[in-house]
């Protein structure tokens, strides 16, 4: 499985792209620069992956980490 974060044409909106041949539960956690959890959700991957937009426009400026956890382990994206 692979996970990447890409910018979009909309300001402060980023797409998480997850690709995997295996179906199953994927946990997504977004943490701020201090390591505090600001969002957590579970997405069921049923068709080779998904693209999920995240809007950071209402969050304070800074660096955020998106952690993607599946059956194979964790991937951290900044």
In short:
The protein is 0% helix and 62% strand.
Q: What labels describe this entry?
A:
78 residues; 7 strands; 4-stranded antiparallel sheet; mainly beta; 3-stranded antiparallel sheet; globular
Fold and architecture overview:
This protein has strands at 2-7, 13-19, 24-31, 37-45, 49-55, 65-70, 73-77. Strand 6 and strand 7 (73-77) form a beta hairpin. The chain starts with a strand and ends with a strand. The chain is globular and about 35 Å long. The model has no long low-confidence stretch (mean pLDDT 94). The chain is mainly beta. 0% of the residues lie in helices and 62% in strands. It is built from no helices and seven strands. A four-stranded antiparallel beta sheet has the order 4-3-6-7, with no helix packed on it. Strands 1-2-5 form a three-stranded antiparallel beta sheet, with no helix packed on it.
Fold blueprint:
Blueprint: E1 2-7, E2 13-19, E3 24-31, E4 37-45, E5 49-55, E6 65-70, E7 73-77
Antiparallel strand pairs: 1-2, 2-5, 3-4, 3-6, 6-7
Low-confidence stretches: none
- Shape label: globular
> What structural class do the secondary elements suggest?
mainly beta
How can the largest sheet be summarized?
4 strands, antiparallel
Strand order of the largest sheet: 4-3-6-7
Residue share in helix: under 10%
| Percent of residues in beta strands | over 45%
Instruction: Count the E strands.
Output: 7
Instruction: Output the number of helix runs.
Output: 0
On the 0-100 scale, what is the average pLDDT? 94
Distance between the termini: 18 Å
Rg, Cα atoms, Å:
12 Å
Reading the helices and strands in chain order gives EEEEEEE
């Amino acid at each position: 499985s692979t996970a990447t974060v890409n910018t979009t044409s909309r300001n402060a909106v980023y797409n998480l792209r997850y690709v995997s041949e295996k179906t199953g539960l994927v946990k997504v956690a977004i943490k701020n620069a201090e390591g505090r959890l600001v969002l957590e959700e579970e997405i069921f991957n049923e068709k080779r992956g998904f693209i999920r937009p995240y809007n950071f426009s209402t969050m304070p400026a800074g660096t955020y980490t998106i952690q993607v956890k599946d059956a194979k382990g964790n991937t951290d994206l900044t």
